[in-house]
């Protein structure tokens, strides 16, 4: 696509600045208005415009601007969280778009290969999305299906949570020395504040509650084998350094409430069904590549 044809008009045109020419003086404008009023015949009242068809907001050179086009833009602006739309301005811009489209058609720009391919892609995407929306609306997803999906999704969730503290050190020797001091009665929180290279050291090494998968594997493996209140008997190495760990508590992790995740489950089941429908269409289609 060349630089000339790559220019893309936005959905709504920016208001054209037509004020570059100097404005007429106030008295000249008033004189012109008076002259016009004088020249006009008293009985030359403008004829009333014919009412537009239902669902049409304007007609541009014989081509209608549907009300639905404006509603589509209003809905899009609302979805983007912008301020309440100016419907009159939107209509003016839709009229401008129609005028520009008609001029482009006069030049047969829609028949050039690059523009034709863009139009075809836009048509294909719009129709495909319309089919998916139509098909999805017709699908009945039961609570039993959603419950089954909920069970499947939660089956592999980590159901245990741990609360632990640690002292992170740079070498195995430093970590072993801390373990020996703890065995001799030293206070864990105090050593964490004095020796740990981890920011949690300022809080006595407390890491709070966490699920196993949120920690590095070496740390998780050590915690899962410890009793509550116990301190690791040997330094635990990870990519961060050498850990001295104390397991403070454990608890069962609560699964998400079914009702709270029901909308997400519905979308998941719907996507799976639509993906299966696409695969059916592929299987029955004659596709040459």
User: How many H/I helices?
Assistant: 9
Using DSSP, what is the number of strands? Answer: 6
Spans where pLDDT lies below 50 across 5 or more residues = 1-42
Overall average residue pLDDT: 84
The main sheet comes to: 4 strands, antiparallel
Strand content: 5-15%
- Rg estimate, integer Å: 35 Å
What string, H for helix and E for strand, traces the elements in order? HEEHHHHEHHEHEEH
Helix content: 40-55%
Report the structural category: alpha+beta
Estimate the global geometry from the Cα principal axes: elongated
The span between the termini is 24 Å
For the largest beta sheet, what order do the strands appear in spatially? 4-3-6-5
Describe the structure.
- The protein is elongated and about 105 Å long.
- About 50% of the residues lie in helices and about 15% in strands.
- The chain is α+β, with helices and mostly antiparallel strands.
- The protein contains nine helices and six strands; from the N terminus they run αββααααβααβαββα.
- The protein has a four-stranded antiparallel sheet with strand order 4-3-6-5.
Please provide a brief summary of the model.
This protein has helices spanning 26-39, 67-79, 87-106, 113-137, 143-154, 172-183, 188-195, 217-224, 258-283; strands spanning 56-60, 63-66, 160-169, 206-211, 236-238, 241-252. With 289 residues, the protein is of the alpha+beta class.
């Amino acid at each position: 696509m060349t630089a000339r044809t790559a220019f893309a008009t936005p959905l709504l045109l920016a208001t054209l600045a037509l004020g570059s020419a100097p404005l007429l003086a106030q008295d000249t404008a008033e004189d012109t208005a008076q002259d016009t009023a004088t020249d006009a015949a008293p009985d030359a009242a403008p004829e009333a415009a014919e009412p537009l068809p239902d669902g049409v907001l304007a007609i541009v050179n014989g081509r209608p601007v549907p009300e639905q086009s404006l509603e589509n833009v209003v809905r899009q602006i609302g979805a983007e969280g912008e301020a309440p739309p100016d419907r009159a301005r939107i209509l003016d811009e839709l009229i401008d778009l129609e005028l520009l489209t008609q001029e482009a058609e006069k030049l047969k720009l829609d028949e050039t290969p690059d523009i034709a391919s863009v139009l075809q892609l836009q048509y294909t995407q719009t129709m495909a999305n319309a089919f998916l929306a139509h098909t999805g609306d017709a699908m009945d997803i039961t609570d039993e299906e959603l419950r089954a999906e909920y069970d499947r999704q939660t089956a592999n969730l980590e159901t245990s949570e741990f609360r632990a503290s640690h002292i992170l050190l740079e070498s195995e020797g430093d970590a072993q020395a801390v373990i020996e001091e703890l065995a001799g009665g030293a206070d864990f929180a105090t050593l964490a504040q004095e020796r740990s290279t981890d920011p949690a050291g300022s809080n006595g090494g407390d890491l709070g509650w966490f699920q196993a998968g949120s920690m590095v594997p070496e740390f998780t493996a050590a915690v899962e084998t410890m009793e509550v209140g116990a301190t690791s008997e040997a330094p635990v190495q990870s990519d961060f350094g050498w850990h001295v760990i104390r397991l403070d508590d454990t608890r069962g992790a609560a699964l998400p409430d079914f009702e709270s995740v029901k909308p997400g489950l519905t979308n998941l089941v719907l996507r799976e069904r639509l993906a299966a429908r696409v695969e059916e269409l592929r299987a029955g289609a004659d596709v040459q590549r």
